[in-house]
Backbone:
């Protein structure tokens, strides 16, 4: 497949314009986990200098944007990740990486359920165990609405992202303004910290931008193909500004205890406008669920469905209910996320979750760099309306930098050495590899046998 | 390359199976849509409508603005309508392209799958 598909002479009746792409890209990145990651980043740098690693991370996010922009322009489809990975490397490796990467969606759904549940329990002054009920309720609603085929309307998604971004900006600015004193060491991130701490901060900073690239799955819905990479670029800018301001506001106004809580954003709200701010940020935290749950469930379930239909997952995962919803993946995602969320609630290990997410996202950005490089040499003829400049330099740099960030993020939690994230990722990758190498050949063989036994219906002419 | 007649015959069979399938009727309840099929090898276009839980006849040419656009080879369309091809495989390999909302694209694949679930 080398030539571009000619443009269809008639435009889609409903197509996404630029603004929804921006809000989708920013909204997918701005899960409730964002606040915890921002608070966690503060501990790695001195004073109020967290904006520096966020800025550096923003530059790295721009590098990732380049890779995903080129890959999306080559394969403007929701199935792009399967296409570009399969064509860049051995399909078994591609599938192993893809399945491992998809686990970040489970992590994000689980962590958001946990964060929203605990934030609401705290806001209502309830005992901490009540958060488990909120978690069960939230995931139950998410699964039920997805099974019924109810999706969040585009306008609601736009509104949700706008509310989250504007409210976070406003609360952060107010908190800083009300603090009444100047920033402390805003330009000295290494004061009392090592270079390794700064690198870890940058890794967490990259995580603040991560998931902006999930908007590429909307490539089939846009009015203009360039809307996708333009939207990602604007979203990175928005995320950079919001996260930098929020992180500096947190470092400047919150205590260590508040920063290490599972809902630092609530304390930020109090610092801004008193007790009302707690409720504002509790509401904002709940609103992030609209994009996270909606986007996460739809993206992941559709990917699982498509992979099952393709024959790389058991056929049972492609079962549809009467509303044409792949119910097995939806229920499975909900159940897995619930288990993870409750485990996090029981163990208090949300910081490990953040580190796992940061490492996995850095890993996939390194893989995107590798795929972009490989496809330039393997498929130079494939049209690329968007091309990364200086790929010969940026490609290997991306592989190296993101690989390093992934490695560092996987062994550091709360500025201490902790191999737990690495162990979790290795277990996940091992399970994926076991499935691909040991189980999948049997799945494919049975499917082949079934097809071979099914007579063709098309008449022979 | 499949001829117009071959595509028409295949589609008629697919339409009959789909419209006679009660489960499929449920799946497309309230889902009135215009779908365009575009062949890459013969440069032909077709329009199908889903209205009141029924698939319409296949019309040659593009009518109205589509909700979904399916692009592929005439051979693939023919095989897909006869149920001899898994369109998802072709989609995941980039040989069939789709344009439209994710929900609508899912529904199209659902129609192609459920109509031949007994195979």
Residues:
């Amino acid at each position: 497949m080398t030539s571009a598909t000619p443009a269809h002479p008639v435009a889609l009746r409903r197509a996404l314009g630029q603004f929804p792409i921006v809000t989708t890209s920013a909204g997918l990145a701005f899960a409730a986990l964002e606040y915890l990651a921002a608070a966690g980043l503060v501990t790695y740098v001195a004073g109020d200098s967290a904006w520096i690693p966020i800025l550096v991370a923003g530059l790295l996010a721009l590098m990732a944007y380049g890779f995903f922009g080129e890959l999306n322009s080559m394969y403007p489809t929701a199935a792009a990740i399967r296409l570009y990975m399969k064509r860049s490397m051995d399909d078994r490796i591609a599938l192993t990486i893809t399945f491992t990467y998809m686990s970040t969606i489970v992590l994000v759904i689980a962590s958001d359920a946990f964060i929203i549940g605990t934030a609401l329990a705290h806001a209502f002054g309830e005992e901490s165990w009540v958060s488990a009920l909120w978690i069960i309720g939230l995931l139950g609603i998410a699964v039920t609405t997805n099974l019924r085929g109810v999706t969040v309307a585009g306008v609601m998604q736009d509104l949700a992202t706008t509310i989250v971004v504007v409210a976070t900006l406003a609360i952060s600015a107010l908190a800083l303004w009300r603090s009444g004193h100047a920033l402390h060491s805003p330009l000295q991130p290494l004061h009392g910290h090592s270079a390794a701490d700064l690198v870890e901060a940058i890794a967490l900073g990259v995580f603040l931008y991560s998931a902006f690239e999930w908007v590429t799955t909307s490539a089939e819905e846009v009015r203009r193909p360039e809307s996708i990479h333009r939207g990602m670029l604007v979203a990175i800018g928005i995320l950079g500004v919001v996260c930098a301001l929020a992180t500096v506001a947190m470092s400047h106004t919150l205590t260590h205890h508040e920063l290490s809580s599972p809902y630092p954003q609530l304390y930020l709200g109090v610092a801004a406008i008193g007790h009302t701010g707690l409720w504002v940020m509790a509401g904002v935290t709940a609103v992030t669920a609209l994009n996270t749950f909606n986007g996460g469930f739809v993206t992941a379930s559709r990917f699982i469905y498509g992979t099952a239909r393709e024959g790389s997952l058991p056929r049972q995962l492609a079962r549809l209910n009467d509303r044409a919803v792949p119910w097995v993946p939806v229920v499975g995602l909900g159940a897995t996320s619930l288990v993870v969320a409750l485990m996090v609630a029981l163990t208090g290990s949300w910081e490990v979750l953040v580190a796992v997410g940061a490492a996995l996202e850095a890993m996939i950005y390194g893989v995107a760099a590798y795929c972009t490089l490989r496809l330039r040499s393997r498929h130079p003829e494939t049209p690329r309306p968007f091309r990364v400049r200086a790929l010969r330099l940026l490609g290997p740099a991306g592989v190296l930098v993101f690989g390093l960030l992934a490695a560092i993020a996987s062994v550091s939690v709360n500025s201490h050495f902790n191999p737990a994230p690495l162990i979790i990722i290795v277990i996940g990758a091992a399970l994926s590899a076991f499935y691909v190498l040991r189980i999948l050949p049997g799945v494919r063989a049975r499917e082949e046998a079934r097809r071979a036994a099914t007579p063709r219906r098309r008449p022979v002419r | 390359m499949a001829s117009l007649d071959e595509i028409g015959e295949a589609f008629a069979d697919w339409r009959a199976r789909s419209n006679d399938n009660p489960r499929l009727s449920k799946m497309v309840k309230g889902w009135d849509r215009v779908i365009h099929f575009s062949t890459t090898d013969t440069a032909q276009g077709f329009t199908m409508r889903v209205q009141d839980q029924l698939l319409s006849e296949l019309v040659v040419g593009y009518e109205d603005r589509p909700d979904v656009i399916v692009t592929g080879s005439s051979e693939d369309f023919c095989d897909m309508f006869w149920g001899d091809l898994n369109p998802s495989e072709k989609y995941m390999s980039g040989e069939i392209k789709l344009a439209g909302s994710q929900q609508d694209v899912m529904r199209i694949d659902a129609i192609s799958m459920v109509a031949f679930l007994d195979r």
User: Anything to note?
Assistant: Residues 4-114 of chain B form a domain with the Nonspecific Lipid-transfer Protein; Chain A fold (CATH 3.30.1050.10). Strands of chain B lie at 33-39, 45-51, 54-55, 59-60, 68-72, 97-99. Chain B has a mean pLDDT of 91. Helices of chain B lie at 4-19, 22-27, 74-82, 87-92, 102-114.
